[in-house]
Design a protein that fits this description.
342 residues, alpha/beta, Rossmann fold, Dehydroquinate synthase-like, alpha domain, 2 domains, four-stranded parallel sheet, two-stranded antiparallel sheet, 13 helices, binds nicotinamide-adenine-dinucleotide, binds zinc ion
Length: 342
């Protein structure tokens, strides 16, 4: 599996759908490491390539507008096909371009980070950041075809970005598979990753998205770790010390597992396994009363909240989550403080 299967599937798709123009959207790092990945496509279609500056700072409506203008200058019509080749930044931004240029063109994601393979490239959420809000504007718009993942692309990934993907992988273990959790916990060499681990996450997310494509109910379980996680991520970014999304998620998993235990859902001995495992691989900050005061405004701003209450996904066992627990902000301090005194 990997590159040759991806190319084969794309060529088959282009022939079937009569697609003649393909634009590859990527970023400088991916282009430097894997710039020739899609060379074989040019024997079958016209290939154009757009290379973005890497990182979240490119994920803006200004970049989208530049791409719209570029497409318009090139006179691309509705039949142009967009191939997003990169991490979550490229997939989110490219998906947004695809959903809006001429009211929608066809596209696919070829994810190059672990986080994008198991999360961002699946599920149709596209978007850009607003100055004051991460992912503040976006659409739900599904790719034309799902491409197989190529784990060999990860060989060039920076270790921090790899751990960021592992943070999301831990989320899948905690919400969906005790077997995966225990398997990861017992591995002699961590981080070591198998195709089965990655496929489990892809299959699980695909199934949940099929059940709830527009994020009205069960899909919320994928938010486990993200209420604290987003607050920690936003706080860190605001203070000039950004942390990768999946690292913040791993920190959020720790505190939301703790809340699950404190609210009487998660058995104490299961919490202990999580509390032993996560800090071995992810830096878990202590949440002091003062720090919590700084985080709460971000949590209160969360898109998931209703009626002024915070919305959490919690776990009742390792491998099983329930969405939409409404929690008053005043309960959080007490619960969290107790933990830091343990
Ligand atoms: N749409 C969704 O459902 C969803 C889900 C989770 C996260 N996201 C979004 O995904 C983004 C984060 O994704 P990410 O962690 O992949 O970040 P990213 O796309 O910024 O990639 C991280 C870094 O790795 C580099 N890179 C990518 N692939 C590489 C490779 N194969 N070799 C070497 N370097 C490589 C990139 O240039 C970048 O510097 C965020 O914007 C987040 O909001 C979206
Ligand atoms: Zn996430």
């Amino acid at each position: 599996m990997g590159k040759s299967e991806t190319i084969e599937r794309l060529i088959g798709h282009f022939h079937r759908e009569n697609i003649r123009n393909v634009v590859i959207l990527t970023d400088k790092n991916v282009d430097r490491c894997h710039g020739n990945y899609f060379d074989a496509l040019s024997e079958h279609v016209e290939v154009d390539k757009l290379v973005l500056r890497p990182g979240e700072k490119s994920k803006t409506i200004q970049t989208v507008a530049q791409i719209w203008d570029y497409f318009a200058d090139k006179q691309y019509d509705k039949d142009v096909f967009l191939l997003n080749f990169g991490g979550g930044m490229v997939c989110d931004l490219g998906g947004f371009v695809a959903s809006t240029y001429k009211r929608g063109i066809r596209f696919a994601n070829c994810p190059t980070t672990l986080l994008a393979m198991i999360d961002a490239a699946i599920g149709g959420k596209t978007g850009v950041n607003l100055p004051s809000m991460k992912n503040g504007a976006g659409t739900i718009y599904f790719p034309d075809i799902q491409l197989p993942v190529d784990l060999s692309l990860l060989d060039t990934l920076h270790i921090n970005d790899f751990f960021s993907g592992l943070g999301e992988l831990m989320k899948y273990a905690l919400i969906a598979s005790a077997d995966l959790f225990h398997s990861l916990r017992k591995r002699k060499k961590f981080p070591s990753l198998t195709m089965e681990d990655v496929n489990f996450c892809i299959d699980f997310k695909t199934k949940i998205v099929q059940e709830d494509p527009y994020d009205k109910g069960i899909r919320h379980i994928l938010n486990f770790g993200h209420t604290f996680g987003h607050a920690l991520e936003s706080y860190a970014a605001k203070n000039g010390k950004p942390i990768a999304h999946g690292i913040a998620v791993a920190q959020g998993l720790y505190y939301e597992s703790l809340l699950s235990m404190q609210f009487g859902l998660l058995p104490q001995e299961e919490w202990q396994l999580i509390a032993d495992f996560l800090p071995k691989y992810f830096p878990i900050p202590e949440i002091t009363p003062e720090f919590l005061e700084n985080l709460l405004p971000y949590m209160q701003n969360d898109k998931k909240n209703h009626d002024g209450k915070l919305n959490f996904t919690l776990i009742d066992h390792i491998g099983h989550a329930t969405p939409d627990h409404s929690v008053s902000a005043t309960i959080i301090p007490r619960a969290t403080l107790r933990s830091t005194m343990d």
